[in-house]
Design brief:
The structure is a single chain. Helix 8 packs antiparallel against helix 9 (181-198). The protein contains 22 helices and 21 strands. It is elongated and about 110 Å long. The protein has 554 residues and is an alpha/beta fold. The mean pLDDT is 90. The protein has 3 domains: 7-129, Beta-Lactamase (2-Layer Sandwich); 141-291, 2-Layer Sandwich (Alpha-Beta Plaits); 309-553, Alpha-Beta Barrel (TIM Barrel). The structure holds ligand C2E and calcium ion (2 copies). One calcium ion binds at residues 459-460, 480, 515. One calcium ion is lined by residues 459-460, 480, 515.
Length: 554
């Protein structure tokens, strides 16, 4: 040690790759090294004898500095992220370590720091800093959260409004599953680049996790309006990403929340942007949504229903019951069957429409449990039914996604057997739009239903653009004309679609049922068109089985 000259020590400090500042008690700056000048823009003579407060950005409050000095006194050290201001006025985050040093009974303070943005480019020790995502080089969640605080504080001081964007990739999981994680990683890097290119240059962009990105954008009257920025991001991902000699199609769903309009509180803003992003996903992905109270209520209600549904299916199945709507042979107006429709009465939420809870059940993987509940209920309802004089049909609704579920057949078999025993024939209704997008394996499963003598009806027929070839290959027995076309008959005096469906069905040897017959006039028109079957409020609303029993016995 003794061999190393004072000069050598001075050189070591002077050319150290980190910015170093030495302050005397006071504190007053006594010395800064070259890297300090490089980062802050201030030369030594400009800062000597000044207080370090001249470097502050004004973004931290008094309590922050109090805590910092308290830590230095208590623990002999403070380390953390702090936003300071360069000579040119620019605010920047630095990773700062401060510790006291006593030499000859005199206390000095050493401050050593790293410009966080510069550190990212150098890529050494980045992960130690725990503020950057090593894959994309973007800020990570921790730095992003700190940045929100800073933006909010900036708003408090200077009234600069800003937007928080949540950006989630659509279909990234598919890329990963199909091409492996190495390719997935490269795609994420390309995504980060593309986002940087389409966001304003001063935006703070971060990768929060997996395929989730976020950004902070200042909003001033002369910047590009937020909807345009969001749309630009969505548009930028209409083009495929080229990685590993392949094109990858990932799109983005965006949600934005505004400070101060929506909130001035960081967790609320994050939550609101997240909700808005969820609404964008719900709206079909590859689009953006700016937070709105109304959307939020909608998502909250969906969440509430989801939880209540899961709970009811597991522990309170008595909340569910089934209503049956009669189906008639139109020429003779005799009853031919019933359609079973699920009903749910929740003690607090009240009666919840099946269109609402079925959609949620489908999205959240609960649809099989709903069908299980339906089947149990029907078996209970029918177990003591007297056999009708002529065989009748019982139709149940099945979601298309259940066709590929191997549990379906195990669910339907006991129902089928139970119904057959009391003189009923099971029919399964699947909506047309869903059927048309089915693959070959689903088709095989439909044939398996047919092999078990379970009938198949296409629900809401006319709304889903069936191809004739497809229709010919489906093991279908009945087409149910969507009630929209029945209503249209008297509203526009337009019977063309109904007639077309009837003649199509005739040539394919299929039966037809008209749904939603509400008036006598509709019934008469359908009779004139020789539509064989129908159901609707004109005959009967769906009701519980005991109030129908007499009619069932002919
Ligand atoms: P859907 O299969 O098209 O059922 C017919 C809907 O039309 C029923 O609504 C019924 O109450 C209603 N309706 C019957 N006659 C008339 C009429 O004359 N006029 C009008 N305006 N409406 C009429 P509901 O019960 O609200 O069911 C809605 C949808 O929920 C059903 O449409 C079906 O797709 C679905 N759904 C009901 N139960 C189940 C189930 O257990 N499983 C599945 N996957 N879906 C179900
Ligand atoms: Ca139906
Ligand atoms: Ca229908």
């Amino acid at each position: 040690m003794r061999d190393v000259s004072n000069l050598a020590f001075k050189e070591l400090v002077e050319h150290h790759p980190k910015a170093i500042m030495l302050a005397q008690h006071g504190p007053r700056i006594a010395y800064v090294n070259k890297q300090f000048t490089h980062v802050t823009g201030y030369e030594l003579h400009e800062v000597v004898n000044q207080t370090p407060a001249m470097l502050s950005s004004g973004l931290h409050n008094a309590a922050f500095y109090q805590r910092m000095w308290q830590d230095i006194a208590d623990k002999q050290r403070w380390e953390g992220l702090i936003w300071n201001r360069r000579k040119n006025g620019e605010q920047y985050p630095q990773w700062l370590t401060i510790y006291p040093l006593t030499v000859d009974h005199q206390t000095w303070y050493v401050g050593i720091f790293l410009d966080v943005h510069e550190a990212r480019q150098q890529s050494d020790g980045l992960t130690n800093l725990a503020y950057f995502d090593p894959l994309t080089g973007l800020a990570n969640r921790a730095l992003f959260l700190e940045s929100i605080h800073v933006y909010i504080h900036q708003y408090d001081l200077f009234q600069h409004p800003f937007a928080l964007l949540f950006i989630d990739l659509d279909f990234f999981k598919e890329v990963n599953d199909l091409h492996g994680h190495a390719v997935g990683d490269q795609v994420l890097q390309a995504v980060a680049q593309r986002l940087q290119n389409c966001l304003p240059s001063d935006a703070t962009l971060a990768r929060l996790s997996g395929d989730e990105f976020a950004a902070l954008i200042h909003l001033t009257p002369d910047t590009i309006p937020l909807p345009n920025v969001c749309q630009a991001v969505v548009d930028a991902f209409q083009q495929p990403i080229h990685v590993a000699h392949q094109q990858h199609y990932v799109t983005t769903s965006l949600g934005a929340a505004l400070c101060p309009q929506h909130s001035q509180q960081h967790t609320r803003l994050l939550q609101q942007a997240d909700r808005a992003m969820y609404s964008a996903k719900q709206a079909g992905k590859s689009c953006y949504r700016i937070y709105s109270e109304q959307d939020a209520e909608q998502t909250q209600r969906q969440q509430r229903i989801h939880e209540a549904l899961r709970h009811a299916l597991e522990t309170a199945p008595e909340q569910f019951y089934v209503e049956y709507q009669p189906q008639y042979h139109l020429p003779s107006q005799t009853l031919t069957g019933l359609e079973a429709l699920m009903r749910w009465h929740h003690p607090e939420l009240g009666q919840i429409a099946p269109t609402e809870f079925i959609a949620i059940a489908e999205q959240r993987g609960l649809i099989h449990a709903v069908s299980e509940c339906l089947v149990t209920r029907i078996i209970q309802d029918f177990h003591d039914q007297a056999k009708p004089k002529t065989p009748k049909q019982l139709a149940i609704n099945i979601s298309a996604q259940q066709i590929n579920d191997t549990r379906l057949m195990f669910l339907l078999r006991p129902l089928h057997t139970c119904l057959q025993r009391c003189g009923w024939q099971l029919e399964v209704e699947i909506t047309e739009s869903m059927l048309m997008s089915m693959g070959k394996s689903s088709l095989q499963r439909l044939h398996a239903l047919r092999d078990e003598q379970i009938r198949l009806a296409i629900d809401d027929f006319g709304t889903g653009y069936s191809s004739l070839v497809y229709l010919q290959n489906l093991p279908v027995d009945t087409l149910k004309i969507d009630r929209h076309f029945i209503q249209q008959m008297d509203a526009n005096d337009d019977q063309r679609i109904v007639s077309a469906i009837l003649s199509l069905a005739k040539s394919l040897h299929l039966s037809v049922l008209a749904e939603g017959i509400e008036t006598h006039a509709q019934l008469q028109t359908l009779q004139a068109l020789q539509c064989p079957l129908g159901q609707g409020y004109w005959f009967s609303k769906p009701t519980q089985l005991d109030s129908l029993s007499a009619a069932l016995l002919d």
